[in-house]
Specification:
Blueprint: H1 15-38, H2 51-81, E1 83-84, E2 90-91, H3 100-112, H4 135-145, H5 150-159, H6 161-175, H7 179-186, E3 207-208, E4 213-214, H8 215-231
Antiparallel strand pairs: 1-2, 3-4
Length: 232
């Protein structure tokens, strides 16, 4: 059975445009993080951070997470409604993905239920959508919605799992600072060179052992790389 007509032809965002926007935004935020770090002699304890430092870092982290989440949403939505990849090759639309609000509804269903139907309704409340930047959520949604490039997207997002989850946990910890969110951040300790922290944002300056870079700036660079793989 064929899907419904797409009706009026709408202009959707090419995936390379989504990545360019992500890269530009993350580059700016990374520069601010490095400029901040340059004002400090070192990061070895929670006492190296003031209250104003924590407020500033929380804002930067939130913007980085938003940029990443918007990119992930664009990749899923545009791939379902039809777009082009980074090489300019066409990604054909799925039959029932006639608009972003149809994809939005299908994504909500794909997160909540393991089997179809996913398509057929619309969602107009953005707050009801999945947490797009959560790579574990994407690992559920993509194989169920199955846009033509879902395997590429899934592999790309999976490759950035640690960096994406690190930023997510620290961001959530800052937004909901409590004992449980701090414990979730503590689960990151085996992957980084760490110092004791009293606020989630301080973990942004733990050290990634291979690159010797800060957790935050290394994660941002990796998410840019992941994004480029996703659109290729």
């Amino acid at each position: 059975m064929s899907g419904p007509s797409r009706g009026v032809c709408l202009a959707y965002m090419p995936l390379d445009s989504a990545w360019t926007k992500l890269s530009t935004e993350l580059d700016v935020l990374s520069t601010h993080l490095r400029d901040f770090a340059s004002t400090k002699p070192e990061f070895s304890s929670s006492s190296d951070f003031s209250l104003l430092d924590e407020c500033f870092l929380e804002g930067l982290l939130s913007r980085a997470w938003q940029a990443w989440s918007k990119f992930c949403r664009s990749c899923v939505v545009e791939s379902c409604v039809g777009t082009t990849d980074g090489a300019g090759l066409a990604i054909p639309p799925l039959p029932y993905a006639t608009s972003d609000i149809h994809v939005s509804s299908a994504a909500i269903r794909a997160k909540r239920q393991s089997g179809p139907p996913y398509w057929g309704s619309i969602n107009t409340s953005l707050r009801a959508e999945p947490t797009w930047g959560d790579v574990d959520v994407l690992a559920k949604i993509l194989p169920r919605l199955r846009p033509v490039n879902f395997a590429r997207l899934l592999a790309a997002f999976s490759s950035g799992h640690l960096s994406a989850k690190a930023l997510q946990r620290i961001r959530n910890g800052a937004a909901h600072c409590n004992a449980q969110s701090m414990q979730e951040i503590e689960t990151l300790r085996p992957y980084y060179i760490v110092f004791p922290i009293s606020h989630p944002t301080q973990a942004l300056f733990w050290i990634e052992p291979n690159s010797k870079d800060f957790l935050a700036t290394r994660a941002i660079e990796e998410l840019k790389d992941v994004g480029l793989i996703a659109i290729s």
